[in-house]
Automatic annotation (TrEMBL):
Record lineage: Bacteria, Bacillati, Actinomycetota, Actinomycetes, Micrococcales
GO molecular function, one term: metalloendopeptidase activity
Species of the source: Cellulomonas cellasea DSM 20118
Alphabetized UniProt keyword annotations: Membrane, Signal, Transmembrane, Transmembrane helix
Protein name: M23ase beta-sheet core domain-containing protein
Domain M23ase beta-sheet core: 329-423
PANTHER family, per the entry: L-ALA--D-GLU ENDOPEPTIDASE (PTHR21666:SF289), PEPTIDASE-RELATED (PTHR21666)
Length: 439
């Protein structure tokens, strides 16, 4: 461990020195490199893939009373589209395994993270969590911009107490803050904990899937997005630590079970608290989720019905976006809905697409007669596939919290000739009231 500590300290020093010498070049390159970054709502499609995480989630489903299928999306399963940007290709040909040519800045940031992880005693597992988080948030870069005041490799926010802009854009400082514990710049000796808390402050993080552990610290609007970086993060950590697994220095009263068997169960509450839609994941992986289709009654051909009877929480029209804080058109109507609430086709039609749609998360669009389409956004699951004919009143999806939003809800859009129109007025003209109801 003394040798690793020395290597880590040297790596941090070299990384910091490189960043200082090349800060001007980095700033010029950041804009170009950022153009390719595109974050999407992960929902259950990205789920908790990689190194047994899927099986760990299924173990939680079994503990919740679900009968879990052998594989997701089987003949009986619901339709889940391939996640956008899932498992991106791992660069080759760089100075360190897992990096491409010219990625010296990224290597330096990764070295600083490994050095901080070594000092924090989080072992290979903790370093992998941190590298995966930084790959998602910044591509392992020292970004001087981000959503609102998010900055640095982990997109930490000065307004939330993570440090000054200069501090959180420093890889060593940011990594120590991410890991937390006694080595964190935010450690309070009197309380014995860091605030804001890092990975070490997350109880049981050692047994959590990488994406869940990362989300516990990051609290991202895309809680499952870290999963797709786990394989690359594992390779990077192995390359920078010599390949030998480094154990986590657990407290004396800790008992890590590890593995992916049912004995290593992360509770449903752990998943929900992290933002992962375990209920939707379980529904997508049960032996017979098609039973969802039996709910409700179909309506006469060509008639219209409300997809959901619930309270309206945000109407169609111009508004100040609650997340991005820009004045723009809200192209649909939001309804109060807990994750997993059944949603019904508004009328007969054909499923046009099921996909990931940026801030809208997992969506389903149904094409109806007369050039009309209805779009359901922020879903946790879709139980129909593109090309399916659906009847009005048929359950076609479950509400969720995928994509960008302030919490679980159902967003309904109606498009006429490709143009979004007010769903409430549209349905009212067809004898259906969307206002009112109980959430």
């Amino acid at each position: 461990m003394d040798v690793l500590t020395s290597i880590g300290a040297w790596a941090a020093q070299q990384g910091a020195s490189w960043l200082v010498r090349n800060r001007g070049r980095i700033a010029a390159l950041v804009g170009i490199l950022a153009a390719g970054a595109f974050l999407v709502g992960a929902g259950i499609g990205a789920s908790v893939s990689g190194q047994g995480s899927d099986e760990q989630a299924r173990a939680t489903c079994r503990a919740m009373g679900f009968t879990v299928a052998n594989s997701p999306g089987g003949a009986e399963g619901g339709y889940v589209p391939a996640p956008v940007n899932a498992a991106p290709a791992i660069p080759e040909g760089g100075l360190v395994d897992g990096f491409g040519p010219g990625e010296n800045e990224q290597i330096a940031v990764a070295q600083a993270i490994v050095a901080a992880g070594t000092a924090a005693g989080v072992g290979t597992r903790g370093m992998t969590v941190a590298i995966a988080a930084a790959l998602q948030e910044s591509g392992l870069r020292q970004l001087d911009y981000g959503d609102r005041d998010s900055l640095g490799p982990f997109q930490q926010r000065p307004s939330q107490g993570w440090g000054t802009p200069e501090q959180v854009t420093d890889a060593n400082f940011a990594a120590r803050a991410f890991f937390g514990g006694a080595n964190s710049p935010h450690f309070d000796a009197a309380r014995g904990t860091a605030s804001p808390g890092g990975l070490i402050e997350v109880v049981g993080w050692e047994q959590m899937p990488v994406t869940v552990a990362a989300q516990k610290v990051q609290r991202s609007a895309f809680p499952n997005a870290y999963a797709k970086h786990e394989v690359r993060a594992t390779r990077i950590v192995a390359a920078l630590t010599g390949g030998a697994p480094i154990p986590t220095l657990l407290p004396a009263d800790s008992t890590g079970t590890g593995g992916s068997s049912d004995a290593a169960i992360v509770t449903a509450e752990n998943y929900r608290a992290s933002g992962f839609d375990i209920d939707g994941f379980c529904a997508a992986n049960t032996a017979n989720p098609s039973a969802l289709m039996s709910g409700g009654e179909t309506i006469p051909a060509g008639a219209w019905t409300a997809p959901l009877a619930s309270l309206i929480t945000s109407e169609f029209g111009m508004r100040l976006h609650p997340i991005h804080h820009v004045w723009k058109l809200h192209e649909g109507t939001d309804f109060a809905a807990a994750v997993g609430t059944p949603l019904r086709a508004a009328s007969d039609g054909v499923v046009k697409k099921v996909t990931w749609y940026g801030g809208g998360g997992l969506i389903v669009a149904v094409e109806h007669a007369g050039g009309v389409e209805t779009w359901f956004l922020h879903l946790s699951q879709v139980v129909v596939a593109p090309g399916d004919a659906v009847a009005g009143g048929q359950v076609i999806a479950l509400s969720g919290n995928s994509g960008t939003g302030t919490g679980p809800h159902f967003h309904l859009e109606t498009h006429v000739g490709g143009v979004p129109v007010d769903p409430v007025q549209f349905m009212r003209e067809r004898g259906v009231e969307l206002t009112g109801g109980a959430p």
